[in-house]
Design a protein that fits this description.
binds zinc ion; about 120 residues; five-stranded antiparallel sheet; about 20% strand; binds guanosine-5'-monophosphate; 2 helices
């Protein structure tokens, strides 16, 4: 798959619809199309980075931007006031299906990740 075919690049470029809940010049956060909990948001860089395994020094600012905006996004969602899960699936054995690095921000009710 080339980055021209990448679904998350297309969402970032507004070529594919998504419910965007936060955006700045380097990242986008949008609702997962198949949520596993009441709140399930994906946070992505606008540039194509395949997975955590491809993150390099030059991506430092963008990774920082993704993480620093987690509490800013979470504060706006009442269901996340008491906490949330942040998950980064990586590679085939890590359950990664979309090969564009993303954070799953999950919460709001018990989910398969909680015991
Ligand atoms: P992964 O398994 O790669 O960590 O997670 C990919 C996530 O992207 C899945 O939770 C899946 O539901 C979500 N997803 C896949 N395609 C789309 C799409 O076109 N739009 C949105 N909003 N989410 C998607
Ligand atoms: Zn991409």
């Amino acid at each position: 798959m080339t980055k021209e075919e990448c679904i998350f690049c297309k969402i970032a470029k507004k070529e594919v619809d998504a419910t965007i809940i936060f955006e700045n010049e380097s990242i986008v956060a949008f609702k997962d199309i198949n949520p596993i909990a009441k709140v399930h948001i994906l946070i992505i860089p606008k540039i194509h980075i395949t997975s955590m395994n491809e993150v390099q020094e030059i991506h430092g600012n963008i990774m920082k931007e993704m993480l620093l905006n987690v509490p800013i996004i979470a504060r706006e969602i009442s269901e996340l006031n008491e906490g949330y899960r942040l998950i980064v699936n990586t590679g085939k054995r890590g359950g990664q299906e979309v090969m564009h690095v993303h954070l799953h921000l999950i919460g709001g009710q018990r989910s398969i990740f909680q015991s």
